[in-house]
Amino acid sequence: MKRIYLDYAATTPVDPQVKEFIQPYFDKIFGNTQSVHTFGQESYKIVEQARNFISKMLNCSAEEIIFTSGGTESNNTAIKGVYFATRNFAGKHFITSTIEHHAVLEPMKFIEENFQSEGAKVTFVPVDSSGIVNIDKIFENIRDDTVLISIMHANNEIGTIQPIKEIAERLKKINQQRQQQNKHKIYFHTDAVQTFGHMKVDVEELGVDLLSISGHKFYAPKGVGVLYIRKGTRIEPLLHGGGHEFNKRSSTLNVSGIAGLYKAAEIASEVMQEENKRIKLLRDKLFEGIIKKIPDVVVNGDMEKRLVNNLNICIAGVESESVLIALDNEGIAVSSGSACSSGSLEPSHVLLAIGRDPVLARGSLRFTLGRFTTEEDIDYVLEVLPKIVEKIRKISPIYKKTQ
Amino acid sequence: MQYSEKVMQHFMNPKNVGEISDPDGVGTVGNPVCGDLMTFYIKVSKDGKILEDVKYKTFGCGAAIAVSSIVSEMAKGKTIDEVLKFTREMIAEELGGLPPQKMHCSNLGVDALHKAIQDYLSKKKLNPLLCRCPFCDGDLPCAEIMECKKCKKQIVKCPSCGKIVEYKDICTHCGGKLR
Fold first, then answer.
1. Which of A204, A226, B115, B156 has the fewest beta carbons under 10 Å from its own?
2. Burial classification of residue A376, based on how many CB atoms lie within 10 Å of its CB (0-12 exposed, 13-18 middle, 19 or more buried)
3. What is the ipTM of this complex?
4. Total domains in the fold of chain B
5. Does domain A16-266 have CATH number 3.20.20.370?
């Protein structure tokens, strides 16, 4: 049977070139980067090469990035790290949006729930119906004791790209005033897991202090990521131990993973522009085909300020899981929202945040295209999906055709 | 999460899908916001004993559709008394098991079918098995949680053993979870 993967936002396969590149780093160049001998030096060399390359891509210095186990750890380190480093003298208030990934929402809730007695508080700001965060609401909610704003670069479910630069510019002015008033700086974190390796991510241009990256979203192996920490940003490590990564993240370095992330980033920086053009054409073809062939479908999120590989729709009268399973049965892999929430019965928090009717929200489908998606794949989906939807709608007690 | 082969068969080729235009009874259970929604339609034989036709419409996951299909198959041609003894466990077993998270929200077929039978019985003003309070014989409304009009006790049908019991945390008859 044909197998078509359209869930690249959940994870990507390791690029064959990356797979090839990292082979020596399992058994030939395997030393501990902190060892003095040649084995250790060889590993150290590739890690530093990776660090230099990634930091150049991010437009920061090599000492400003640490390697982590992935996006979840980077987000947790940014949020809990700032809280634990500043709780005693600066502030305890955080601002984030309602459409963040669970790897941001949950550490935020953890802090609020566990440190309530010392005044920890999180404000969740809403997004508009197109899935873009309300900047004014962020600034209305800033308090004297605010220490961190965390807004994702692009949303993982609906792909909307957030106005990080605008937020940073406004925040810069506020931070200048605060400096004169002897108040602590408000740090700005962005979860760039969906964007790094897919579009330009420049920390100076974006104006952020902290930025999270995950390798497996851009054809590197799973289990490796990066956290950018602007020089001077106070952060307490999550992992204490041998003092690796400038004392910010102890743990023997994942040399093969870091080598993979390096190679994947190098490929991304070379092919990104061409690849995005190709993927956007395919995504638009998929979108237009669906709208033409299936009545009563709505798109979720802004179509312009959006990742080029993402299409997220709601299909009236059906429940996502039944469509997912029927598609899977035909060899097509898509998702209802984030991989973390597939199989849960609750409608997606992102779709509710953009104001979707909760019943309609249960019929969401997310298609995310990638490097290995072909036009034939899209044609096949456009042939199979309408039949499946028609069949499931026939069973549905709530679908009344509107056209 | 994995579905059994039987679930997949019923999901891919559901039996008895549809509505009955002049049904003898209709029953809907569930909630489309955070669970599944099922409506069952029944046609009863002239002597009032046998379910001659059973159809349904279902909004929900693969399990919900498979459950509806197998319930309709199991019930068609059986007597009302036999069908009233169906439990959620029987359905799950017949399907070769259901993932645990699907037991509560998707395994609603029996409840919807029982509600359709209640609807039929109450329309016929027959002594409805489910519509009399087991404690004081007072009138019960046809609902999932029925409050007796006379003694004000809250009554439910235990999804595990099928007995009509007072609505508490666990079933007083079999110990099964009620809420």
1. A204
2. exposed
3. 0.83
4. 2
5. no
